[in-house]
Each structure stands twice: as structure tokens, then as C-alpha cells.
Amino acid sequence: MAQIKLDGTSKVFGDITVIPPLDLEIGKGEFVVFVGPSGSGKSTLLRLIAGLEQVSGGRIYIEGRDITTTPCGDRGLAMVFQSYALYPHMTVRQNMAFPLEMAGEAKASINRSIEETAHVLDITRFLDRRPAQLSGGQRQRVAIGRAIVRNPTAFLFDEPLSNLDAALRSSTRLEIMKLHQQLGATMIYVTHDQVEAMTMADRIVVLNHGKIEQVGTPQELYERPANLFVAEFIGAPR
Ligand code: ADP
Ligand code: MG
């Protein structure tokens, strides 16, 4: 069974169809990248899955459960944005604890989750610092840590590296991939960067004007692009 399933899912803003009805299944533990030019609907599609936007049509299922109208916070998904969205007045530890405290989790269990996650992400030595005392890459790791402690069903990343310089981007990219292996968690990752998509994805979903042009492994897209758009966008020889 697909872990995340979109069934005729669509989105209309005013009289503009941003996402025509589309179907997509994502398996448990998959690393799926949504790639496409700016304005192709990547963020909108991710926000529909996250529940930050309501669908205009169709259904969304998580592990067979229809969550189409389930509020964002009850979907068991964690969203990591490009802006780090950390609370500036809280330490790293407090930032990570906050969502768990809101969920009513016990103090001891919160501390244990934070220690474990900090260890995995190698941010233990930053736990008592505030965001302003961290580099961009460290802040991004904390933002990912804050998502991990909630033990989500899946992680949704929207261009999480676009605020980082080239060197940090490639090291953080490797960290996210390592994390994917360690956690075995489903991850959906949005980027407009073909190279990022090709190097990170188990499967790539190519979007163009909200429409899925092709879904396939990086190798499939490279060797057998479905059309000219995919061929040109991925940069495969024709
Ligand atoms: P991407 O993330 O691929 O750059 P988006 O999903 O942000 O694309 O946007 C897809 C299209 O939907 C764009 O044309 C954008 O202008 C439009 N759009 C996104 N959000 C809204 C909104 N809240 N209201 C109206 N139009 C929107
Ligand atoms: Mg976007």
C-alpha cells in the first residue's frame, strides 16, 4: 500500500487552475523529489499534502486513511521550510521541545527525544545556544531536528537549502540523505535544481504548470525522458 496517495487531487486559486487533477503514490521510506521550474506548482502540491492548503478536488490518503480534510497538525507529517522558522528567543533545546510540549508530552520523554535527535544530527553542543549564535547550516540542522523529534510519518522539505551557500548546500544535502538512510523515513523534497533532484531522489516527479510530466527514477528520466520538456529540463541528450 502507498504511504501517501493523491487521488485526482487538484488546486484552483480564483479562476486559475494551479494543479489540475493528478494521481501519485509514494511508498513508505521512499525519497521522492518534486522538481520543476519556478511556478510549476511544487510548493502548492507539498502544501496540499501537508494540509497547509485545502484541495479544490480529489482526495489525499496517508496509509489508507482519508486525510483530505484532516487539519495540518493531525496528519503526522513534518514540514521543513527554507526559512528556518526557529524561535529567536528560545535556545535550540527549547525550540525542539516546543512542539512536543504543545502536544502534551512528558518532560522526561521530551528530553530523551531531544538528546537522541541531537546526537543523530551532531548538534548536541549547540543545544543551549540561540539561533542567532548558529550558522545557516547549523540552523537548518536544528530545523530538521525539530521535525524529527515529533517522529513524523513523513518529512516534507520545501527547497530547504536555498538559503545556504554552495559548500553548505552540498554538505547539508549529504546530511539529509544520511538521515533518510538512518531513519528510513519517507521524504518528499521540493527543489527547482535538477542536479539536486538527480543526486538525491529514489524517484523524481517532474512538474510543469502543475501537471506531472513524468515520474521515474533518475536513471529512467535520463535514459527515457517522456517528452521534450523532461529531456530539456533534466538535460539528457536526445
Ligand atoms: P513553485 O513552488 O513550483 O515555484 P508554487 O506552487 O509556489 O510554484 O506556485 C504555482 C502557481 O500557483 C504560481 O503560478 C503561483 O503564482 C500560484 N499560487 C501559489 N500560491 C497562490 C495563492 N495563494 N494564490 C494565488 N496563486 C497562487
Ligand atoms: Mg516553491
TrEMBL record:
Q: Name one GO cellular component term.
A: ATP-binding cassette (ABC) transporter complex, substrate-binding subunit-containing
Mainly resides where? membrane
Q: Which UniProt keywords apply?
A: ATP-binding, Nucleotide-binding, Transport
Q: How does it sit in the membrane?
A: Peripheral membrane protein
ABC transporter domain spans which residues? 4-234
Compartmental location: Cell inner membrane
The GO molecular function terms of this record are: ABC-type maltose transporter activity; ATP binding; ATP hydrolysis activity
Please report which protein family the annotation says this sequence is part of. Answer: Belongs to the ABC transporter superfamily.
Q: Could you identify this protein by its name?
A: Sugar ABC transporter ATP-binding protein
The part of the entire sequence present here spans 1 to 238 of 333
